[in-house]
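seq:
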Amino acid sequence: MRVSRRYLKQNTRIRYGAPRHRLALTVALFVGLSVAGYICFVPVIAGHIGGSHSVPSPLADSERKATPDPVAGTPLAAHAPLPSAGSVEIAELTGQGDTLRSLLTANIEEEASAIKVASGLASVIQSSLRKPFGMDTELKPERYFRITTDSRGRFLRAIVELDPAYVFHAIAKDNSVKCWKEEVVLDFKIETMAFRLKNTLTDSVLGAGESDELADKLTNVFRWDIDFHMEPRNGDTCQVLFERRYADDRPSGYGRILYAVYDGKKTLRKTAVLFSGKYYNEKGVQLEKDLLRTPLKKLRVTSRYGRRFHPILKRWRRHKGVDYGAPKGTPVWSVARGTVVFSGWQRGYGNYIRIRHRNGYETRYGHLSRRFVKKGQRVKQRQTIGLVGSTGLSTGPHLDFQILINGKHRNPRKVRMIKTLRRVVSPLRTRFAQVTQARVLDLNKLQAMRPTINRNRATARR
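struct:
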């Protein structure tokens, strides 16, 4: 899209009345006007012949300042100045599979210049997000971007918005590219969500008008007490008091979950209260335990613990663990703190890791595509130790997960959690009770005041 300025033009015609008196006065006036006209208009005519000159009208200036962003609906000046005359601007939304490399090479004439810009932006984004991010990392669809080039297709500037809180800029400067993250003002508002479980937790949260990001946060809060892949049942209920993040008055994801109640047929009633950076139940007992329920974020059981017919060896044998099916490359966590006692190739299991924990516990992880830890290394709970793969005797990507207690295999689905009861310390128990009561009141009050907020938000997003 070429950006152009419009100016208000209006032709004005001046009419003079003819003098009706003496001839001398008429002649004098005619001569005077002729001389004045020569003095005033010759420079103007010369100016038109020698070059162009224009004066923006107040209307043109106001249009420039308030020109709406064709995609985001915000003034262009909110992100960057208008491009110079003769420049070309592309302002669109990302599509499925778009990357920094594909966006820039498609809109910048010189591929080397496009790669340079993409590399610079990727480096700044990676530093800001604190996780791997490259030129070929897929961008989420429906994300705003703008690329400006000169009339010959040479790069001038670019803006990529991953979400309202993460806006990145690049500009050509002195034969180099300068990249930076825009400073965005963040704000948080307390809101609520309530739903009755139908299908999966993620499906239920989406049905309540929220995103899978909030579902992940909720799973993370209850990760020690609820196995959301096996234990939830349709009809279970959940209420959540959470922070919604705003960036420059635009919704931009979620903050902390402040209070949550999950009431299930199998799980029974589980509560989570955020206090001093940790989650506790209503009795002041910390939710965090020494052993996670699962070593993967999302999984499905493809083979259970016990006697089974081996799909490759074609004979009945005891299965000492549980197989979790997951896409290749899915991160695998250590379920507890411990020390790596083996990390290498194990016949049948392919890439294999064994970790020793306290109280005689040991966990084992097989068929990995990659291993990130070495023998003797100490690991933390929920630390990524490898990636799901299909190495060894395997028919497809999955994780073989085993738990041993004092050298004997146990069913990972039935092992009782290693509990170290940590309670709110005595001097803070009164304060904890006050915080819990305030959170319950906030939850009930917001639910009563805005019973249809989630339904309205879901309709608006569609």
